[in-house]
Write a structure and sequence with these properties.
CATH superfamily of one domain: Photosystem II 12 kDa extrinsic protein
Low-confidence stretches: 34-42, 127-136
Radius of gyration: 36 Å
Number of helices: 8
Number of strands: 5
CATH class of one domain: Mainly Alpha
Strand content: 5-15%
CATH architecture of one domain: Orthogonal Bundle
Strand order of the largest sheet: 2-1-3
Order of helices and strands: HEEHHEHEHHHHE
Largest sheet: 3 strands, mixed
CATH topology of one domain: DNA polymerase, domain 1
Distance between the termini: 115 Å
């Protein structure tokens, strides 16, 4: 079939134009796919980092170790850590520490709770503080006091005394509230009448 030379130019223009349109559509489509995928990658990376930070904060607890230790301070440990783990982080217990009261009152196998404080007393430290108070009041030892002695405290009945005994040992008197043994109001009534030794 013979095509007149008058029609060849318009056909070529139409063909080239169509080809350019197709190339433009292809490039726009490719650009859109690349930008979409890059957005997804950024989003997934950000989400992953947020999850990682959240996971870390949920699995860490912060405790304070004070008193007669080599490196007293605030430490971050994995959830489920024991008192012994915090003591290891704070270095060795100093020779000035009251080893007898440590053995009686600090349970190194106890699980740590977030915000907990572990205090290592100095030799004779507690004796001095008790002497200053005991002239007027006899303190009830929450770690070794009998049920009858505990019931002598204001607001403490038989059921509460049993709960206090069940929660032993205590490393500080504040644990009566942090372990949810007693309420804050009752704690305020008896805090000056109790001791750990």
């Amino acid at each position: 079939m013979h095509i007149s030379h008058h029609y060849i130019k318009p056909i070529l223009f139409i063909g080239v134009g169509a080809l350019l349109v197709l190339i433009a559509i292809f490039m726009i489509g490719k650009s859109h796919i690349l930008s979409s995928s890059s957005v997804e990658i950024i989003d997934s990376t950000t989400q992953s980092k947020q999850n990682e930070i959240q996971k870390t904060s949920e699995t860490q607890i912060v405790v304070e170790v004070a008193g007669e230790v080599e490196k007293p301070g605030v430490y971050s440990l994995p959830q489920g850590s024991r008192v012994q783990d915090a003591l290891l982080l704070s270095g060795k217990i100093l020779s000035t520490a009251d080893s007898e009261s440590i053995e009686k009152t600090i349970n190194k196998a106890a699980k740590l709770t977030d915000g907990q404080k572990i205090y290592i007393p100095k030799k004779g430290e507690h004796t001095q503080s008790v002497l200053s108070i005991s002239s007027t009041t006899k303190l009830i030892n929450i770690n070794s006091g009998s049920q009858t002695e505990l019931e002598s405290l204001p607001g403490v009945g038989a059921a509460t005394a049993v709960k206090i005994i069940a929660g032993r040992p205590y490393q500080n008197v504040n644990e009566l509230t942090s372990k949810k043994i007693i309420g804050v109001n009752l704690y305020e009534k008896i805090k000056d009448l109790i001791s750990l030794y």
